[in-house]
Amino acid sequence: MAERNNPTHQQQQQRPSRANRTVVPSSTFLQKIQSHAPNTTHFLGFLLLFFVSAVTLLIPTGLTLTATVFGLVCFMPVIVVSSPVWGMHPPGSDRVDSARTRIYDTASHVKDYAMEYGGYLQSKVKDAAPGA
Question: Where are the transmembrane segments (predicted)?
């Protein structure tokens, strides 16, 4: 009974020790996360669902891209060959037309110059011939 009435003994029983009171916040956070984490069966179910949905979306995407490329490869020659009928010009045709026009203009200028210069010489030759 002497121990019961001892005030120091009562204070020790009421107050918990410091080692029991200190809790690391990160360990409680990890415990909460681990308690809510799915088990292996749920994880495998989610993984299977992910792969099935990925395959379900990737197969139509791949088929669409393949069909697009195949269609372009097959129909591009038809489009290029028949584009003049539609009134469309393939890319670069304007540059070819302008180069053709420049060549024609240059050739006509050279021809005109040659006719002028040749005519000038012929007139000089005619003038020189009667007086010689």
Answer: 41-59, 65-86
Contact 83, 89 (CB under 8 A): yes
| Sign of the four-CA dihedral 116, 117, 122, 127 | positive
Query: Is 43 in contact with 51 (CB distance < 8 Å)?
Result: no
- Of 100, 76, 80, nearest to 90 by C-alpha is 80
Q: Whole-angstrom Cα distance, residue 95 to residue 89?
A: 11
7 to each of 17, 18, 23, 53, 62, how far by Cα in Å?
Answer: 17, 20, 29, 70, 82
Sign of CA dihedral 25, 26, 28, 29: positive
Q: Evaluate whether 88 touches 81 at the Cβ level (below 8 Å).
A: no
- Separation CA 33–CA 28 (nearest Å): 9
**For the whole model, what pTM was predicted?**
0.36
**Residue 38: partners with Cβ closer than 8 Å, 6 or more residues away:** 46
pLDDT digits (tens, 9 = 90+) for 46-58: 999 999 999 999 9
